[in-house]
Amino acid sequence: MSYGMSGRIFQAPFLEAHPGFRLKAVTERSKKTAVQRYPDIISYDSIDELLNDAEIELIAVNTPGNTHYDFAKRALQAGKHVLVEKPAAATAAEVKELHDLGRAQGKQVFIYQNRRWDSDFQSFKQIIESGKLGKLIEVTLRFDRYNPVLSPKVFKEAANTQANGLVYDLGPHVLDQAISLFGKPLRFTKVTGRNRPGTLVDDYFFFQLSYPDQLNVLVAGSLLTAQPMPAFVAHGTLGSYLKDRVDVQEAQLDKNMLPTDAAYGIEPPGSEAKLITFAADGSKQIQIIPPVKGDYMGLFEAVYQAIRNNKPYPITEENILAQVELLESRNS
User: Fold this and answer.
1) pLDDT for 234-248, tens place per residue?
2) Portions of the chain given CATH number 3.40.50.720
3) Does the predicted TM-score (pTM) go above 0.85?
């Protein structure tokens, strides 16, 4: 595991807090900062040193997206389980190769799709599965930001690297959420765009996913949305559901809040969802839906149970293959 933004926020706090893991080592090529928070940690200078540590069973691959395939492959060949940040790889063929290698090595490949444990998505999932909306007609999942300035991280803006642009950055989150709810679509339409001055990579994407029984799922993301629309919207024959993207975990973790803190994952007041239905007399009913606690520890517990007790990991190879096939597809 590297100890940049992802390691500091999304990986290390959970590996440290979960009783089934011991956070032993990271790779830091220049600045040695992990020890400031984890005094007993080993900071290796190279990935080879990390891979050669015989005591390590699981390696988190949280380097730039275009390196995930190579580093995950090296870790599997070294006899380690791997937890791979999104995007899993640039192509579905690479995803399949990693899982095939894992099976051959007797090791497991886990793809890190933490947004399944966001508070807003958990609430959305509960409504979808409750049947309160009746037959679903249209579902929308969005991930919008406003950031017109090109990223200082060169790998995110380079046109000559794989697995780059917004479609590979935020696309895996919302596509995984859609696929986790509805599976692989029957067919799809894809559109991407480049709108920031000087950009060489996509900063907008839109997928229209068609499912059985005329269900239409819309998945989109943009870096130029000054006023985001509700991120989770569902319309059915019995009503509608709307909720903003309000999960607080990333912001809390960035401020060094521990996953064990009582306030962790709790949405602020005023961010509740709305369920709109009609009564028998035709009057509109608006119900405020209480928030659900978000908790990325659920992902790490799933990894632990898969390794130690051979329980199925919820983010399946089929899920990721369906996702990456969409990511790598050409615009329609």
Assistant:
1) 999 999 999 999 999
2) 5-112
3) yes
Which parts of the chain sit beneath pLDDT 50?
none
Axis crossing angle, helix 92-105 with helix 317-328, rounded to the nearest 10: 150
C-beta neighbour count of 330 within 10 angstroms: 6
Alpha-carbon span 156 to 154, nearest angstrom? 5
Q: How far is CA 21 from CA 51, 57, 99, 138, 297, in A?
A: 17, 10, 23, 41, 12
The HSE-up count of residue 201 (CA atoms within 13 Å, CB side) is: 23
Among 183, 180, 171, 174, smallest CA distance to 90 is for 171
CATH superfamily of 5-112: NAD(P)-binding Rossmann-like Domain (3.40.50.720)
The residues with which 83 forms a beta bridge, in sequence order, are 60, 110
Q: How far is CA 170 from CA 11, 20, 204, 205, 299, in A?
A: 18, 30, 10, 9, 18
CATH number 3.30.360.10 is the correct assignment for the domain at 115-294: yes
Alpha-carbon distance of 256 to 18, in angstroms, equals 16
pLDDT tens column, 92-110: 999 999 999 999 999 999 9
Q: Contact, 136 vs 234, CB < 8 A?
A: yes
Beta-sheet pairing, 215-222 with 25-27: unpaired
